[in-house]
UniProtKB/TrEMBL annotation, chain A:
UniProt keyword Repeat present: no
Organism ancestry: Eukaryota, Fungi, Dikarya, Ascomycota, Pezizomycotina
SUPFAM superfamilies assigned: Protein kinase-like (PK-like) (SSF56112)
Name of the protein this chain belongs to: Serine/threonine protein kinase, CMGC family, CDC2/CDK subfamily
Pfam family for this entry, one: Pkinase
Annotated ranges, domain Protein kinase: 52-344
Extent of Polar residues compositional bias: 21-33
Binding residues annotated for ATP, in chain numbering: K83
UniProtKB/TrEMBL annotation, chain B:
InterPro entries listed in its UniProt record: Cyclin-like_dom (IPR013763), Cyclin-like_sf (IPR036915), Cyclin/Ssn8 (IPR043198), Cyclin_C_2 (IPR031658), Cyclin_N (IPR006671)
One Pfam family cited in the UniProt record for this chain: Cyclin_C_2
Name the record gives this protein: RNA polymerase II holoenzyme cyclin-like subunit
Segments for region (Disordered): 351-391
SUPFAM superfamilies: Cyclin-like
Biased composition (Basic and acidic residues): 351-361
CDD domains reported in the protein's UniProt record: CYCLIN_CCNH_rpt1, CYCLIN_CCNH_rpt2
Length: 400, 391
């Protein structure tokens, strides 16, 4: 605690800004119906709702419809309004865990590389509406996949990874685990920066003694300790996922694309690509509840093995990647340690935002099929899947 | 490359600091305002009724103090319900703050706490990662699930859609660890404080005077009068455990979360538990030259006074509560009486508005049931999103 957090904060908080009546247009006189005088919370809610004009639909997911909207006061200010659908499971749980988590965490996290939640309001029919930063440029997955239109350099990769790691570190410093980091949850802003989104699986790790589910994180980005059913874990799970994103950016293919996607195949694949988790490289692993590995032990892959595949980011880059994908979570770097790695200051410098590639063919062109996934390939996709048939398209010219 | 983020920086960006921290005056006037709106609403509706019946009823409204005491009683009810369910302390603390925040913008006469407290506790269980269906929850506390869910949106709105409650428990554990390290001679004082090295700190810690009468610690010095390391260790543990108790009842049943930061609250609790030990601890932490030092100490002392002054006996008894609720029944806002019906109607609209496809719901349900079979039901919900074929 050092000099104790907030020790010098005087008991005066800032004024109850938006609840202040009168001065900012909220007043008891402007209540909707004569028989029903709005209470203070209703006034604030209504005021928030009336700030926006809703426009066309931007997209729609299983949990929400997303609309473009702008501020009444300034039509050039665009936002995205995410209207949460009321599911059949509302009967069992009321407001869903996903929406509550998203709201809880995004309300607290204010960082340039995390999607901004400006406000939440409800409508008469009791729908929750999240007013989010509008990020119309698609997500990182679309860039990775669009091998025929998009080329990018190792400097671009460094720039994206730096933004991702800053976002992740910021979450961890706030005691928040994201637990679902993957390219399609990294949205691209119009200035080219990327923003970590979708906090529907996030949780806080404030209490180290509370057990947590190991059944989280999209399977391809899930770290080995979760396959072995660790019930106490921390920020290192997100670092593994970030490592997977790093590798995917370089190879333009999912690092651990087990097919069919099940846990056994994932463990096999991790053993094959990194090495088999054993007591030697991960003390205590054999006593974990879900510890099962293929009988044939693969020794840890040496650096040359990694270099063959990831040479594009140089020796320092490969060193970092290997340390983000260390099997033993205790040895794996924390987000803070990742940010202290020499990779970021080594040549090449990370690309400036304005030089980063943007979506190529456009979302419309690419069509619905690319919106799918997170791991899944339509039935019959076989072990092929995306990436196999397409040429790797990193701009090798720009590399040394 | 790495930004240094202190807990202080983080606290200042939190919604708790931005929206839910007040000066005592601001807090009082907000409550007054809320009650005024509620009373005005009641007057209008009884005027309308009088116009119809031409028999104006004289209604006696709850006073501000009565509202406060009734709310406090239900904060206590949340504590015992949460304990009954054996939920961890952070769920209880979150739920209590939800209830207290709710009644900053709502009057008990509009929404009686009896109808709200189960909802905030259920909501807190969800935001604090306890996994339980509303029917299980309702069964375990012998209530109707509809009653639990009906005010949920109303509660969310009153909470201004902010759900995170910063708490002093982890910080208190941190102080415990630091004290134990100081006692081992492992660390010295910070620069500019009493500039002692580790061994000097340890030596003078053994000399700290005994806790005075009225401190809450259970620890008493050995009859010999001379302390060794073991005694010191016991003293620290006893102070911690007394402080931990203070963070339960008094800290949750007073306004301290509105008025002070989590670290101020935990240091205040330590102060009430073992004042000399806490003063010693602070003397190793705060440089003498620090200009804000007197202010910091004064704030901690003010918070400590509030915690120490709390009297559990002053919480309404069951009979007092019953009497007050009888009075409340007569001045209860008729416009918000049937929450369940209003909720059902609105939910119907909401469903038609944006419905999740039936197949998706089915799939999600199956996945959830699987997770529950995996023995994961009580901790960390893990609802796989079905749009990602693989979780
Ligand atoms: N902040 C945003 N800015 C622009 N478009 C968005 C934003 N958030 C979501 N969308 C669009 O809405 C669609 C559905 O979003 P969302 O509900 O978050 O997806 P899912 O349910 O698949 O997680 C996305 O595929 C995207 O096209």
């Amino acid at each position: 605690m050092a000099t104790s957090p907030a020790l010098d904060v005087p008991p005066e908080g800032p004024p109850f800004k938006r609840l202040k009546t009168g001065s900012n247009g909220v007043s008891t006189a402007s209540s909707p119906a004569p028989s029903h005088m709005a209470d203070l919370a209703e006034q604030v809610d209504a005021q928030e709702r009336q700030k926006y004009i809703k426009g066309r639909k931007l997209g729609s997911g299983q949990y929400a419809d997303v609309y473009s909207a702008h501020l009444v006061s300034d039509p050039t200010q665009l936002v995205a309004i995410k209207k949460i659908k009321v599911g059949a499971e509302a009967k069992e749980f009321g407001i869903s865990y996903d929406s509550l988590r998203e709201i809880k965490f995004l309300q607290e996290l204010d960082h340039p590389n995390i999607i901004k939640l400006y406000a939440v309001f409800s409508t008469k029919s009791q729908n929750l509406n999240l007013v989010l930063e509008q990020l119309p440029q698609g997500d990182l997955l679309k860039l990775i996949q669009d091998t025929s239109n998009i080329t990018y350099t190792p400097a671009d990769i460094k720039s994206w990874m730096l933004m991702l790691m800053r976002a992740t570190h910021f979450c961890h410093a706030n005691y928040v685990l994201h637990r679902d980091i993957k390219p399609n949850n990294l949205l691209i802003a119009s200035d080219g920066s990327i923003k970590l989104a979708d906090f529907g699986l996030a949780r806080s790790f404030a209490d180290p003694f509370q057990k947590m589910t190991y059944n989280t994180v999209t399977i391809w980005y899930r770290p080995p300790e979760l396959f072995f059913q660790a019930q106490y874990y921390g920020g290192k799970v997100d670092v593994w996922s970030c490592g997977c994103v790093f590798a995917e950016l370089v190879a333009r293919d999912v690092m651990f694309r087990a097919w069919p996607e099940n846990e056994i195949n994932m463990v096999k694949m991790i053993c094959d690509k990194i090495g088999t988790p054993t007591e030697d490289n991960w003390p205590g692993v054999s006593k974990m509840k879900g510890y099962v590995t293929p009988t044939e032990v693969v020794p840890l892959r040496p650096k040359e093995h990694w270099m063959a595949q990831f040479r594009a980011v140089g020796e320092t880059g490969v060193d970092l990647l290997m340390k983000m994908l260390l099997l033993d979570p205790r040895k794996r770097l924390s987000a803070e340690e990742v940010l202290k790695h020499p990779f970021w200051t080594a040549e090449p410098r990370p690309s400036r935002l304005e030089d980063l590639p943007r979506k190529g063919g456009g979302m419309e062109v690419m069509g619905e099929d690319l919106k799918r996934r997170g791991g899944e390939i339509p039935n019959g996709g076989g072990a092929g899947g995306r990436g196999d048939k397409v040429a790797r398209k990193i701009d090798f010219g720009a590399m040394k | 490359m790495t930004q240094a983020l202190s807990e202080d920086d983080i606290y200042r960006t939190s919604t708790q600091y931005r929206l839910w921290s007040f000066s005592p005056d601001a807090l009082a006037s907000l409550r007054t305002k809320t009650r005024e709106i509620a009373v005005e609403r009641l007057r209008r509706s009884s005027e309308q009724q009088a116009a119809r019946n031409d028999e104006p009823e004289v209604v006696e409204y709850l006073t501000e103090d009565e509202e406060l005491r009734l709310t406090q009683r239900y904060c206590d009810q949340i504590r015992s319900t949460s304990d009954h369910l054996k939920w961890p302390v952070h769920v209880k603390a979150t739920a209590v703050q939800y209830l207290k925040r709710f009644y900053l913008s709502n009057s008990c006469m509009t929404y009686p706490p009896k109808e709200i407290y189960k909802t905030v506790l259920y909501l807190a269980s969800k935001t604090e990662a306890i996994h339980i269906t509303v029917s299980d929850y309702a069964r375990r506390i012998s209530t109707d699930p509809e009653q639990v869910l009906a005010p949920e949106y109303k509660v969310m709105q009153a909470l201004r859609f902010t759900l995170d409650v910063k708490q002093p428990f982890r910080g208190l554990k941190g102080v415990l660890m630091e004290l134990l390290n100081l006692a081992e001679g492992l660390v010295g004082a910070v620069d500019g404080a009493d500039s002692m090295n580790g061994d000097e700190v340890k030596a003078s810690m053994l000399q700290v005077r005994r806790p005075p009468e009225g401190n809450r610690t259970q620890w008493t010095p050995p009859s010999s009068g001379t302390l060794d390391g073991k005694h010191l260790n016991d003293r620290i543990q006893a102070a911690y455990s007394a402080a931990r108790t203070l963070l339960d009842a008094p800290a949750l049943l007073t306004d301290v979360y509105f008025l002070y930061t989590p670290s101020q609250i935990l240091l205040a609790a330590m102060h009430v538990a073992d004042e000399p030990l806490t003063s010693f601890y602070l003397s190793t932490k705060l440089p003498i030259s620090l200009s804000t030092r007197p202010q910091i100490l004064a704030t901690i002392h003010a918070c400590a006074d509030m915690l120490a002054a709390f009297d559990q006996g002053a919480v309404l008894t069951k009979d007092e509560r019953t009497a007050l609720e009888a009075k409340l029944d007569k001045c209860r806002d008729p416009g918000t009486k049937d929450l369940i019906k209003a909720f059902a109607a609105m939910r119907q609209d909401g469903m038609e508005d944006g419905k999740v496809e039936e197949g998706v719901a089915q799939k999600r349900k199956a996945a959830r049931e699987k997770n529950e079979r995996d023995g994961d039901d009580l901790f960390g919900p893990s609802l796989p999103k079905t749009n990602e074929g693989s979780r």
